[in-house]
Amino acid sequence: MPVEGGSSSGSASAARHPKQKRKAHSLSIRRTNSTEERPLGVQRGDMLEGQDSKLPLSLRNNLLDLFGQIEREFENLYIENLELRREIDSLNERLTGDGQTIEGGDPTKGALKTKASHSTSQLSQKLKTTYKASTSKIVSSFKATAGSRALCQLLKEYVGHRDGIWDLSITRTQPVVLGTASADHSALLWSIETGKCLLRYAGHAGSVNSIKFHPTEQMALTASGDQTAHIWRYMVQLPAPQPTPDVSAPCDDDQDSSDREEGEVDGEGPCEVPTVRLATATLKSHQGVVIAADWLVGGRQVVTASWDRAANLYEVETSELVHTLTGHDQELTHCCTHPSQRLVVTSSRDTTFRLWDFRDPSIHSVNVFQGHTDTVTSAVFTVGDNVVSGSDDRTVKVWDLKNMRSPIATIRTDSAVNRISVSANQRIIALPHDNRQVRLFDMSGVRLARLPRSNRMGHRRMVCCTAWNEENQSCNLFTCGFDRQAIGWNINIPALLQEK
How far apart are CA 104 and CA 93, in angstroms? Predict the structure, then answer.
């Protein structure tokens, strides 16, 4: 999570608390070859008497039953293994004997070798089949479902920041460029096609935690660890596009996930680029890190979220504070505005997210939603009437704005979820994870694909944020991470939906 001052290394090390060792009461289990060997008068309670444990007797008996079932399962496997070994030895002896009787250049020797090889292959296949069938009962609950194989083409890597990238966004006006916010106290604008850095904003004194673009004008909104949010204007000219290399790979769960060397960065940083240092407006009413900010529909107001447990609503033209939105019990982690209505959603470390309604100018209402058991890292609106929330509890939930009592879909993952995004046209959810994965789901919770992650593509550290850019059938997904780079992907939507 971004910290005031902007050092990614410090925040990363602070986030890793050493696991404290705990003394565990040992549970001794008397192992027997069969139940008949146990004395008839000895009960489980008698067997456990005198053993140092604070577990209830009923729980210990249940543990004994479970361990006994496991032992019997592996005992059966062991017996089957012994029988198969005897068959192998017997077959080898027969093959050896046959080979000795036809020594001396008999022309049938080649046929015998072929027969032996075929028999050994059959036996090997039988061993594999038996092993899989026997162990499937134990590991069936851990078996992952096969993922879809949609075509995901690496579009471009955007390398130039000197610290981790917390957030990224796409401009809503022409020219379309990519913006990144980094812990190195800067925000950069990039040419999507060439990967060239076009502009640098260096007006903040702390980590830049968020970047969002005005809906109609060439203005950007950035939030920072220096307890302020800045509105600044930009003017860029796109360079001539260059042919991109054809680097494509299927979204396969079996991709190689080996790490590159820590600190290794592909390519070089941006050359000297125009730098903006002065903000058009500075919003500074917070008493803590400003973790996120966004434009309300129309672009006349902005909302900011801070670690001081409050969200603020400002007038853009005057930089005047209009409302202070309080109620969260812990630090805020994200804020998002509805694309067409005056609605704001804020998420917090207090395991809740709140929906603020400003559609009536005279009053504003708030609804609190407690759908997670850990920090809600982000909550975003979709083009329709849905809210999608992600959490450190490794779940993502889809909510209906018309009935927010319970989620309409729940996605369970194997890693904490960071700032999510939903494509406007296809309504596909992109989940960035702490474990460097980026997964795609539909609104009903069906898993569609996983972006490639290998030693030659993908992020090498946790993925912090995702953002979509859709043009007709071409759909681009951008991701950024703590490895100091942003990556653009071309998602073949027709192939993705066909696999579904």
Answer: 19
The whole-chain average pLDDT of the chain stands at 80
Residue matched to tokens 């040992």: 26
- Across the beta sheet with 386-391, what order do the strands follow? 376-381, 386-391, 395-400, 409-412
**Beta-bridge mates of residue 411:** 396
Supply 146's token pair: 């096969």
Task: Choose among 341, 332, 370: nearest CA to 210.
Answer: 332
Query: Cβ of 465: how many Cβ atoms within 10 Å?
Result: 26
Angle between helices 109-139 and 57-101 (to 10 degrees): 180
Three-state DSSP at 227 gives coil
Rounded to an integer, what distance in angstroms lies between the CA atom of residue 220 and that of residue 234?
8
Q: Is 81 helix (H, G, I), strand (E, B) or coil?
A: helix
For residues 454 and 229, which has the higher predicted lDDT (pLDDT)?
A: 229
pTM of the full structure: 0.69
* DSSP characters over 363-397: --EEEEE---SS-EEEEEE-SSSEEEEEETTSEEE
For 417, the token pair is 């979820």
CA dihedral 259, 264, 268, 270 (to 10 degrees): 90
pLDDT value, residue 360: 84
Please name the residue ranges forming H helices in 102-175: 109-139
CB burial readout 345-379, b (16+ within 10 A) else e: bbbbbbbbbbbbebeeeeebeeeebebbeebbbbb
* Confidence check: pLDDT of 18 > 70: no
- Residue 218 CA to residue 174 CA, distance in Å, equals 9
Higher pLDDT, 30 or 301: 301
Say how many CA atoms lie within 13 Å of 396 toward its Cβ.
Answer: 33
d(CA 415, CA 432): 9
Contacts of 199 (CB under 8 A, 6+ apart): 188, 189, 234, 236, 273, 274, 275, 276
CB distance 8 to 263 below 8 Å: no
User: How many CB atoms within 10 Å of residue 322?
Assistant: 14
Beta-bridged to residue 293, according to DSSP, are 304
Q: H-type helices in 188-291, by residue range?
A: none
